[in-house]
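protein under study:
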Amino acid sequence: MATAEDSDTLRWRELDRRHHLHPFTNPAELAGKGVRIVTRAEGCWLWDSEGNRILDGMAGLWCVNVGYGRAELAEAARRQMATLPFYNTFFQTTTPPAVELAARLAEIAPAGLERVFFTNSGSEANDTAVKLVRFFWNLEGRPRKKTIISRDYAYHGVTLAAASLSGLPAMHAQSDLPLPGFEHVAAPYWYAEGGAHTPEAFGRLAAQALEQRILELGPETVAAFIGEPIQGAGGVIIPPPGYWAEIQRICRQHDVLLIVDEVICGFGRTGRWWGAERFGIAPDIMTTAKGLSSGYLPIAAVLLGQRVGDALVAAGQEWTHGFTYSGHPVAAAVALENLRLMTEEGLFERASGPLGAYFADALMSLADHPLVGEVRSCGLIAGLELVADKAARRPFPPARKVGLTCRDHCFAGGLVMRAVRDVMVLAPPLIISEDEIDEIVRRARAALDLTARDLGLG
């Protein structure tokens, strides 16, 4: 007998099919199977409209660091909405939450990053960084320095500029990208591309690929290099020791600005406030989003070091850039409260301490599975690389869609674990418990077993 919940689900699915376009989705395929309707959440758990309880191993989209259902964040939004629901930061005005948040970010940022510009998403933050880099070199009287170098497997967003920064060819063809002035070099992806090299040796080679490209293009034309401390949406590519030190040396030697994309790695994900701290990086520009508000409201930020920030202020001219919702007072108030919770509860310390170690050890127990070639993690971000031949590190043919098969089994088994190619990636809320980590591993193993069965391997 049909229930009211069944009726609601059918109605929502039909409305979604008719009217709602989803990101990174084949609309025809989704229309055929029907969308899942998530209706509520608490802690690390989601519930859908059919009553299924789902363990969220991806913290929404790498962002719900303090977990779902935090009354403190809802109350911060309510208070601000009751006082000042919106005003802009144009017309030489600001609001208290925007000012306080900028100051707080400067306080916790790596040394020297003291000026903050607010956007609404990581894509907008990286797009802003591109414009800032171009403006900076114009101010310096070196207008030929315009090319920005990124990496293969990089993900920096979906605006025209941010998608051009991204090193994922599948994002480029539909929109005739990348735009001119964007280059890509090898990623430090040892497991897939390192061959017989040690991880450290391959990391040096990957870094030296940047120097080679700079010299090919001419240092006088190269404006900046951008990289995520850990390449998240590229498959949780964790750089070998020494990689970032060499990248930094190369940028300084050739007077190339260093942009660090902290959209995923920032706010405790790697066990520090910033991935830059984890890997000893001193950026000229840093972009961040997601964990800034734990995803409760859209907000992002671009942080500028002294060299770029001082040049912008000393230019004595209008900077013709901004968004209606830059520094939105409600989003800023929620972000401030989010940072307070993270600090008081020591969430990034949990990710770098015993809980992060427990997470790494628990996932390592999956290394014995016949499909798992490598388990890699840092803090509370991890990837399981699925391969056809573990000894040879040989991947499955892309047409087999092994990662998507495993993802579907995860979802059916009540676990959100994302597939990037054939890498299963995890980034749970930083409040996760050891029992919930055990449950992730149990459900992941069950999904891996079903995937192996589908491949005729079990």
Remarks:
- The CA atoms of residues 179 and 274 lie 30 Å apart.
- The longest strand covers residues 372-378.
- The chain has a mean pLDDT of 96.
- The first helix runs from residue 4 to 19.
